[in-house]
Every structure is written in C-alpha cells, then in structure tokens.
Amino acid sequence: MALRPIFYDTETTGIRVEKERIIEIAAFDPIRNKTFERFVNPGIPIPAEASAIHHITDAMVESSPNFAVVGQEFIDFCDGEVVLIAHNNDTYDMLILKHEATRHGLTLPTWKYLDSLKWARRYRPDLPRHTLQFLREIYGIAQNNAHRALDDVQVLFEIFSAMTDDLSIDEVMKLLNKPRDLQHMPFGKHQGVPLKSIPKDYLRWLVGNGAFEKAENQDLRASLEKLGLLEPV
User: Which of 99, 147, 184, 190 is catalytic?
Assistant: First the structure.
C-alpha cells in the first residue's frame, strides 16, 4: 500500500528541542483534502523572542488544551499508513513531536518521516539557501503569513510538489534514503572543491564542531571515509 503524505509544522516556545513546548501544530492531508490546526497550552510562558517570530502570545493559547489532548487529536488525524513531511523534520519537528509525546505519556504510531529540507539540499545544490521562504520565492509561490503553522504547511505542500514533480512519495523516499557518493565539498568555504583537495585542518575543524554528527552530513561523512580522509566511527 502506498504511503499517504501528510504535511505538518509546529510552532514552539523556542529552538531547544529537549526543553521547548509545542504551542501550535498544523497539518494538511492532500489525499483526503483535510487540514488540522490547533493551539496548545504549553503550561509555561511563551518567551517574547519566540512570540516576535510566530506572533503567538500567552493570551492566544491560555484556553487551549495541553499536548496530551492535542497530540491525541493529531494522532487520530494521521491514521493509516502515512509519512509525515516537514521542513527540517529530521533535526527539529520530528524530534520535538516525539519529546512532547513522551512528556505527556502518548505513544506515537510507527509513522515514517520525510525531511523536505534534506530533499532541497540534495536535489537543489545550485541554490544558496534552502529555507522555506527562499524556496517559496524561487518557485513563485504566493506569500503567506510566514511562521504560522498552517500557512507554512500549505506553502510546504506547494514547494514540495514543485520540487518532486511527478515522483510518487515512495519514489521520493527511496531516492532520499539512497546514499550519495560525493566527490566535491557541498558547503562551506571550500564548496565545490574536490574532497581529495580539502585541507586536513578544515576537516579536523568540522569534526571538532560536530558537523559529521548531523543527519544532513552523513553522505559527506561516508564519502570522506571511503576516500580515507576521515576515520570511520
């Protein structure tokens, strides 16, 4: 059975995955043409710097249920064999969703997850940036209320549809999970330089800063290890 895509986004109290709380979650199911949008009472004050980005205040969420309730509603919305798609899913939305579920005693289904940021970085290396709003401009998608969950979800759906063209979700998953054999540096001050020509002190600097621990750099790690330029873990 083919996976059913569900595009989703979270707005939170901050960027520290282990400590923050979800204050809004939204989703779009293009197969069923249904949307999901809920505020969440996080049980803690929303920092002013977070409100300045998504414009969600304490007053807007104070009468909303907590994540134990909203999380279960989200689980019910995402029934069946689905893949949850978000921008920066691997290192943010998926992780905070799982943390919130654990914190509130919810058991998430064995969903599959797809990171549209990873897809954009892999298949649009010609672009200098891969943020949702930059991709929106590149693909000529109408501006919306950026950093509100449902608006970002709708933009993500349009961007992802444009980036993947007529590929099925199953085909996208296979391509995204297929390791790449990189020959050139994909980012940084040595972008485009053959891997064999990258200075060793720069590679040591990347190791020291945890660059190869990030999910999006595992192809680079494997390629460097294959060339004998990086010690295998």
Answer: 147
pTM listed for this prediction: 0.82
Residue 148: closest CA among 84, 31, 216, 57: 57
Question: What DSSP character marks residue 211?
Answer: G
**194-224 pLDDT tens trace:** 999 999 999 999 999 999 988 778 889 989 9
CA-CA distance, 89 to 215, in Å (whole number)? Answer: 11
| 8 A C-beta contact, residue 74 and residue 51 | no
Told to judge if 147 belongs to the known catalytic residues of this protein, a careful annotator would answer: yes
pLDDT tens-digit series, residues 92-110 = 999 999 999 999 999 999 9
Q: What is the DSSP letter of 90?
A: I
- Assign 69 to helix, strand or coil: helix
Q: Of 136, 152, 177, which closes a domain?
A: 177
In the predicted structure, residue 75 carries a pLDDT above the cut 90: yes
Same domain, 183 and 103: no
Q: Domain range holding 187?
A: 179-233
